[in-house]
Amino acid sequence: xTRVYRRLVPVxxxxxxxxxxxxxxxxxxxxxxxxPNRYVVTNLTSDIAGAATNTDPVLQNSWGVAFTPAAxxxxxxxxxxxxxxxxxxxxxIASTLQVKIPLxxxxxxxxxxxxxxxNHPPNPAPAAPTGLVWNPTTNxxxxxxxxxTNLPASFIWxxxxxxxxxxxxxxxxADQAVLAVDNSPDALTILRLFLTPEGFEVITAGGVAExxxxxxxxxxxxxxxxYAMPDRTGLDLx
Length: 238
Known about the structure:
By secondary structure, the protein is α+β, with helices and mostly antiparallel strands. Helix content is 13%, strand content 19%.
């Protein structure tokens, strides 16, 4: 198994995610206040009133982030509220549009894009988006289209629920992403169809127990796994 490390660099993103301290230093050495690598993190937005210049109660457990050259500086995906919001460079909400992420099966729960009280979680809970990417491809033949349309997706999300959702302007309803890939045997089929022509031998499994058995039979060079699976989580597999 190959371990992949990802580094998040942009200070604006860190600033919008940090709630606790008003400033942080990159270098903890004795000369940390004079070192060339020092930086200051400023709180721009928080779901807690008074913790930052801007308050957004939907900004809970923000994970995914995407930048677009022609629009506002960044979109954030909120893991706890099943929502994605557009912010300006100062952390203020730049649009009244907040995109709701679908659950497995494609439904949008009423709890999406609403503040979640962790002591009284809603039922059903909203989707749990993690990764978020801006899609620059606009070719309707080769691009990633929003399912059920001929519109190239502007933004694509993946979730802990094992789904991929897509959104672009012009959809109805305008504030709902569309389920593109579900956590099902269909998703395994799609992976096989994409990877086999590239020369990969693809071995699939429907859960952690089955995957561990397959690993004992044949050690793979790479494992692609969901976080949420029927028996255990992808962390158990790793």
